[in-house]
Amino acid sequence: MHTGRMSQTSNERLRDYLAQLPPQSQALLMREFERAIERGEDTTVATFVLEMLRKIVRGTDEEVRPRTEDPARLVFRPLEPFLVDGSLPMRPGQIRRASLLPVWQWLVRDGAPEQVRALETALSRGPETGTNSDIEVAVRKLQLAAADAIVKIATPTRGDDLRRSLARVGPPNVIEDMLPIGSVLQAREAIDTLNSRLPSFLRVFAESQLASVSDALNVPSLQTPQLLPFALSMVLQRLTAPWQIIRLAIRMAASDDEVRVAATPFGVAVTIALHDLSGLAATLRADIKRGHFENVAENLKILHDGARGLRTELDLRNDSTWGRQLTSIRADISNALQSEIDSVPGRVRRLLRQRADKDIPAGAQLDTGEVEETAALIDFVAVCRTYASELAINEVTLRTYSDLQHYVEQSTESLVQSLRASTGKGRAYRQMQVAAAIRFCEVLFGHDYASLMNRAAENALTGERKPSRAG
Fold first, then answer.
1. Interatomic CA distance for residues 199 and 192, integer angstroms
2. 84, β-bridge pairs
3. Tell me, what's the pLDDT at 40?
4. What integer is the mean pLDDT of 139-143?
5. For position 18, what pLDDT does the model report?
6. For residue range 383-429, what is the model confidence (pLDDT) as tens digits?
7. How far apart are the first and last CA of the chain?
8. Which residues of 367-395 are buried (b: 16+ CB within 10 A; e: fewer)?
9. Residue 156 pLDDT
10. C-alpha distances in Å from residue 292, one per residue of 38, 377, 458
11. What is the pLDDT of residue 60?
12. What are the residue ranges spanned by the domains of the chain?
């Protein structure tokens, strides 16, 4: 089996992977590659993958059969949009990917062994006798049998030992995921219909889109406590601003009062929005701690917009569960950002501090990696300034940014002047300091000012003197 897979070409492996994706994932990928082509980014790769996706979606590759070695993937395909990895806290509308294997093993062993064998038989038939429709029928029968078996074991009749029965499936995390798994498998047709009715992309979740989505969700089977969070998760995945999922709850309650919103089944939308903001805040803290600032600006914008949206569109009480959650999220973000912001001026001063020639050891150098990391931190402060008010870091951010501008401007001019008179062992080190200062100027003041200071540094090195202003 593995030998056969290893012998496939890269193109075949890519096509196999794309063909196994859920339709909504294929559609999302197609839109991303189309936008990448419009922006002129990676057009060769994007065009190639986009064409392959279009062929798969159009069905021109009908010879591509399901992966016969993995019936579990076929059965659990409706769960794909809701699977999460890692050990982060879960929210309604999510399922742990790690739970699928023990649940599948239980289905094979106890839950629905006859239906599993029927699917394996359908998959084992060659092109001469087997068809994709046979496989689809077997998959659906197994999905329904799995849902029935899960409901039965999770809600045993009087006299059954619930704990012992569930222990045969897996640990507590897996047991927690069982009813959600069964609910999604049982309602596959309703979920597929919802997927086809939802707009593929919701840039502005305004009244017309809200009405359309509300109509699509107006299906009794989708509005059960078990299934509604998954239906809302499908909507959320299409939103440009995920926090806007709360607008559905406000619309259904016909009020922005949190008590009335919480009293409706759609109140879970607010819980989902707050959970996702909390998870993003945790990611932001981890990125800052590791010194990874690539996604900080984007994450800060999402957090800023989400916190502001929840505060302005919902009438939250400070002492309510939702109110305390939002306050806690904002405080966590503020603490993480403030701690890092406070550290930036010290790092800059350490790199640009003037030293006497006698205090500069032979061969002294600045770490270029530290210079770039500090430049990223200065840019981080600038980004924080944009979102400072909503994230409760206004005072520290504005003060730090102003201090950085003042110090870097003065230090750069001073270092350039010292470069004129510097000779011997200290000259090379001062050149590195000037280069670092100019790098910081580019972040703080822009390219033009950095170029001006760079020319001044070049003049200082060649011994040229600026004309006196007093003349």
1. 13
2. 96
3. 59
4. 94
5. 81
6. 999 888 888 888 899 999 999 999 999 999 999 988 877 766 678 88
7. 86
8. eeeebeebbebbbbbbbbbebbebbbbee
9. 62
10. 28, 10, 33
11. 44
12. 1-64, 68-186, 198-316, 340-461
Q: What is the 3-state secondary structure (H, E, C) of 282-321?
A: HHHHHHHHHCCCCCHHHHHHHHHHHHHHHHHHCECCCCCH
Residues in CB range of 396: below 8 A, 6 or more apart: 338, 341, 342
And the tokens for 194?
């919802």
What is the pLDDT averaged over residues 244-262?
95
CB 351 within 8 Å of CB 366: yes
105 φ, ψ to 5°? -60, -40
- Provide the token pair at 464: 């040229």
| Complete DSSP assignment for 410-452 | HHHHHHHHHHHH--THHHHHHHHHHHHHHHHHHHHH-HHHHHH
Q: What is the DSSP letter of 244?
A: G
Rounded Cα–Cα distance for residues 437 and 382 (Å):
17
- DSSP-assigned letter for residue 89: P
State the pLDDT at residue 128.
Answer: 47
Q: Please say whether the beta carbons of 419 and 430 come within 8 A.
A: yes
Quote the tokens at residue 203. Answer: 């840039």
CB within 8 Å of 38: residues ≥ 6 apart: none
